[in-house]
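Subject: Sanity check before I submit

Could someone independently write out the structure tokens for this chain? I want to compare against mine line by line before I put it in a report. The sequence has 344 residues.
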Amino acid sequence: MSLFPGKNSRKKTGRKRSVDKSVSSDKESLRGAERQTTGLLSYGYLLGLHYHMAIEAFRRLIKAPVASFMNCLMIALAFTLPALFYLLVNNIQVLAEGWDGNPKISLYLSTEINAAKVKDLQGEVLKISGDEPVYISPEQGLLSFQKSVGIGNIVSELGFNPLPGVLQLSAPAGISYNALDQLVGRLQALPGVEQVRLDKKWVQRLLSITEFLERVSIALALLLGLTVWLAISNTVGLSIEARKQEITVVKLVGGTDGFIMLPFLYTGMLYGLLGALLAVMITWGTLIALLPSVMSLAGLYSQSFTLAEPGWQMFFALLGSGVLLGILGAMASCFKHLKKLEPC
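---
Independent answer below. Compare away.
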């Protein structure tokens, strides 16, 4: 029996506290390890969850193959129309650039200019335009005019040749209208050139038609993109209504809206992705079917025309648009329908 029980008890208590501190420090270190392991498991769990949700969404599409294919076909047609229109605009531009009917620039020369000055002037025009001009002498122009009109010798009746010498060249391919106007101004300033004529109306008409078709293709893409968004939203909404009892049970046991939305987001993404892939196939099939007709049409104009094909840029644009519109449509449908399924 101790004479200083309090002191002895304090010693024992101190030892106990030191042991408790060591145990608590060990527990804290274990908790840190447990927290790290839990973080790794949660990351792997999320990956597995997304994988299983994607597989489950794909299985649900396969269970109703006819309905799923019809929905994908509707989405594909909505993607195919603007894609074909875009390719049509590109092919028109390529055909117009390679067409022999490019606008001709005619330089009407002064009547006092001689053959040596005409040679020098041809060199200056070649430097400015990059195209070697063809010289049509007054005599050649008069003969061509008499043949086309069907009249006799004009020189004998008038006493002189009224036609001047002409330098003709083609406008550079792919040049803009403003650059073409500047080129005409530089040619007009050359010595010995009386007048420069260009079929500006033809150029303006071609550029206006091309710009109009480009704007129509953009507007068509926006409208049909809205159609795809509405179609996917409606399809996902029907799927939510068919599983509302299951959703209500999941909410009762604590399931969050994000957890419930996940399979439907994958459903919308799969609809958009499969529809875009089907649109690429339809676009290629349409181009292959139209290729003989296009080649025969180009042959009538003696053109070696190469049909512009949908490249990788269009392929990835269609796939990205399909995935984005699918996710956005599914999100809109989930936000709309999940609010109505709140448990009482």
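---
OP: Matches mine. For the report I'm noting this point. The radius of gyration is 39 Å.
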